[in-house]
Amino acid sequence: MSSVRGIISRRAAITWILKAAAAGAVAPKLAFGDSRGVPIVYSRGYGLDPDLRKNYTPGELWPLILSQEQRVAATALCDEIMPADNGFPPASAVGVVDFVDEWISAPYEAQRSDRALILRGLKWIDKESTRRFGMPFSEAGASGKAEICDAICSVSRASAGLEEAAKFFSRYRDLVAGAYYSSPAGFKDLGYVGNIPQASFDGPPEDVLRKAGLL
Amino acid sequence: MPLVSPKTTRDRYDVVVVGSGAAGGQAAYTLTLGGARVLMLEAGRDYSPETETPMFNTPNQAPLLATGTSDKPFGFFDATVGGGWSIEGEPYTNAKPAPAPDEDFRWWRSRMLGGKTNHWGRLSFRNGPYDFKPRTRDGLGFDWPISYEDVAPYYDKVEMLIGVYGSAEGLENTPDSPEGCLLPPPKPRVTEILARKHARKLGIPIVAAHRAVLTQRLDSSRLPALLHPGNSFAQSIVRQSMESRAACFWATDCGRGCSIRANYQSTTVHLPPAMASGNLDLLTNVMVREVELGPGDRARGIIYIDKLTGVEHRASARVVVLAASSCETVRLLLNSKTSRFPSGMANSSGLVGRRIIDTVGCSVTGQIPSLEGLPPHNEDGAGGSHVYAPWWLYREQLSGKLGFPRGYHIEFGGGRSMPGASTMADSEWLTGGTYGKRFREEARRYYGSFVHFAGRGEMIPNDKCYCELDPSARDKWGIPSLRFHWKFSDHELRQASHMRSTFESLISEMGGRVKAQDRDIRKAMDPGGSVIHEVGGAVMGSDPRTSVTNSWGQSWDVQNVFLADGSTFVSNADKNPTLTIMALAWRASDRIAAEMSRGNL
Questions:
Q1: What's the pTM?
Q2: Chain A CB within 8 Å of residue B438 CB
Q3: Is the pLDDT assigned to residue A11 strictly greater than 50?
């Protein structure tokens, strides 16, 4: 299954105004990295009155900031979180990395903290993989990737020193799941069958009521 | 909509209406179909739901999966195309620089044709008899100068015009509509049926919601004559308008608007017939600055600014109707200062800006195991709730058993709605934190098994909730801004706590798990203004010393100025205010027409 949103030309993106800055001076220092190198985004949002019916693609409204190296780590991690399953494609095949890139590149306040968290997290995961296995996360093999994910997949169970990495994982999983389940494959996987005009609304079918214990 | 420009307006109108939402739309509809020449002014742009609504777009087609941003706080697909919590160049202030959670006030302003009617939940409840006489019942707040019987005929008419689904249940202070007013309600969804079954054990009645959505087409052969007896001109126009509205096709969230005109928006229901009458001139992108006083304590008209050119213009009329939204109407009056009325027009009582009341809101989410793994089926339905629980503890409350004086109703969410950005977000409380195939299995398991209860309760007016002109802040046209003061009283905090414990009991009764939230109720409840039910600020009454208008919304001081929006509300029952705003605007417009024909205006 191909990307549902298409991939923006990175060449188009470089004409946008971006500036990397040393924002680390004011950001809290975290165990798994700091804010140095997290770009400040100067682009504008879509404004109060965008075309609501248009089909937007990542990179169209603001430039994307993930480097090739970061995209490789992001791809490996999203497919670890949502691998191919049950006949449905893995996360990277439905445009999830493009969405994550769009999200962390967005000029809005709500995305600013995610930008720092995700970029630091992607850096951390490669560093951690290199420390453990001598190679970046994407090359760490199934067991290596699982070892790292097992260590950080739960905020409540994360061991000392891995709390921030677990928060990164949790937020990244939220973004990956949101993007995946918003795609046609995601709708199908969950069994969402709406968004089509119908002549009548007949309420839940009998098998639904029976399963819910209501018949 | 066909528009006029400041250069093509007439020299004088019968009525100028400020605002195009529920109140302005209703006033323009009633007045133009009665033959009056009306000029309507809207601060935002022209807007057409027929061509602009993203009916079937999915989150993956929108920026950021259509999640809310500072540009589009209710999500990318929300119908609002102008305005919001903050508008560049149009500030408002809070009297406290860093207000506590229960002292915060947020002001949602819509800047588009149709105003806030474009994105609301379409819940359309009648106030009951108690709601007009709350002080008589429990000694708190104030009584309205009118009773349920005064408004009931207008509730009938508005329901028949806009199309509201619902049922008659014979419940206390929850009026049944007469036969022929309501459309049949849609069947409940499985989550709603399950909640109804378990709520019964707690004594909570769950019944059909009342929402302004056409579950079938309006009866265009029967209704026009009931709405406009003896007025064949109006009947013919309304018949055509009704025939051009389709019934709901059971898809698309109503908050996006509706291109087939199956739900109520001022832009699809009130304005088309007003326009078809030939009696309405519509000006958009104009900011009204003040009501201009003429001789004899009568308004001459209004002064407005063309937002595209910055040039100031005047419009003159026999009658001025303010329908700008409660607080914008207050602001207009306070800014209409003259030597005759130095504290603002219509303000000899000193009450303009006082007694602002919002709705108390508190929500709880639960996950229900018996809803897991249900066979896929389409639950989109009427684009919003099919059921709700009206307030059910009137007697216990009156006898003092509850510890808070006014009620709330319960609204519903959840089920198999369209997946999006928040699907499986923040799910560690259920999964313990997983990934891989197990995470995907968990997602399939939990999808559709959530229930979301939101309480909507009555706030009692208090002296600490009001607005005034800010001494220094002005908008980009130099018009003084509003400054808000806010503090919920213990009545509201206790009511919100009761909402929360009720929802938690209901979720437990359904066999579910409650999602944890901040235990400090002041942080868990919605901040002031955020439910966007703010009303009051220019209350109606029977005594000019203690009210701003009479019971028709007519200013005591300047008798050709009428307030048609929520600003005249004396209390704010748990019933969402829009239906009552429309009923009172129709009633005020009938009064204006009658007084004009008698030569009194």
A1: 0.94
A2: no
A3: no
